[in-house]
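Before anything else, study the sequence and fold tokens given here and see whether the fold suits the sequence. Record follows:
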Amino acid sequence: MHDISVSQMKRVVQLSLPMAGSRFLQMFSGFIATMMVSHLGRDVLASCALINATLTVVLLVFISIVFSLSFIVGQSFGAKRYDEIGGLVQQGMLLSFILALIMMIFFWYADTVLRWFHQQPAMLLYVRQYFHALMWGVVPIMMQSCLEQFCYGVLKQRLVMIINFFSMLLGIPLAYILIFGKWGIPALGVKGLGLTFAIQAWFDFSLLLICCRYFSDFQKFELFKMRSMQGLIYLRKIFRIGWPMSVQFGGELGAFFVITMMIGWLGTNALAAVQITQQWMFLVIVPIFAMAEASGILVGQSVGAGELSKLNLINRASLFVSLGLIFIVDIGFVLFPHFLASFYMNTQQAKNAGILALIRPLFILMAITLIFNSIRDVISGSLRGLFDTQFPMQVGLFVMWCLVLPLGYFFAFKLHMNVIGFRLGGNIGLFIGALVIYWRWRLKVSGNKIPFTNALF
């Protein structure tokens, strides 16, 4: 059993590491390009915050629907139903195209939507320029996401990372040329940033599509074979399993936004301290989310292969690896909070003393937050490998809106514990959520009797 557990841990790491690497490469490319455009002035920098917040929400809501493809393909891959995988990818591409058309409409009217929230007209001008340029890259963004999920499901994750690496090499100099204007090309500013990401998306999608067409490892799936749509059964399956993930991620992000607004009521120092700790937390979330997705894919493959005895081993291995990473990070949070804060502020200046007083306790509470959140995220990922997506959605929305938010408010404002109380109350809610998700997993795999339903409870 020990050997099998080590084997499962290796599988989790081998799958999740390239997945996390791909996302880090995408983040780094975007970070450098945004840093370039921020030199165009204060209004542009402020508009970038608005652009990034809007883009994050929209992409998360739409792309997360397609995330389900990796779990479905994983089960079919484990069962060696290769022709079925070809049909899944084709109808997944159709669904991605439909979602892209809807997203394009939103991008075209993004500045109009943000005007309803009383944003400044000067910033909305840059928002319009950015999204009108990026709109032409929405179709390849969604198509690329579909092909990436297919690659993850058939364990070709390194290919995705390599393509993202070449995309980064293209994107950074291209952003410089289009933003500032070089080699006879006019300076496009914020519009150049959106155009850069659109060109990157077409490059990524085209390269990945060529690999799927000509690499011998993909030939058995017959991705380019003419098939009957069969009543779009695969498209409906992808959407049925994927929409709860979209609602969950969007709903949790909405709760996160409300919590941030409430913390703002506590003053500038509280908001600044929380912002610093959250920036470090976001870096850790990327590999944890990759491990959760990897766990779901490996669970799906084992179900497809009829190896139900491995399900608990995969889940335990995923938890062990993710919590091992979290414990290492938490040591840094607890021992070096002021050093980590120094990346965002001058810790020697007296005017920052109020923020520094909050940094250490907030990093300690953040360390606990990451433990509970990682348990919930990884087990939720394992459940998605069983196509159980509605229950994690319900738990996620209930935990964030009915526990984390009200408990944080109660501790912060009613018990006068301020921002520390917000984090303390939130951790209580996350702990309950982790327990409920663990109970669901135990119920699902008890006696290796896997109920393949999306029933709510």
Q: What stands out?
A: Confidence is low (pLDDT under 50) at residues 451-457. Residues 2-227 form one domain.
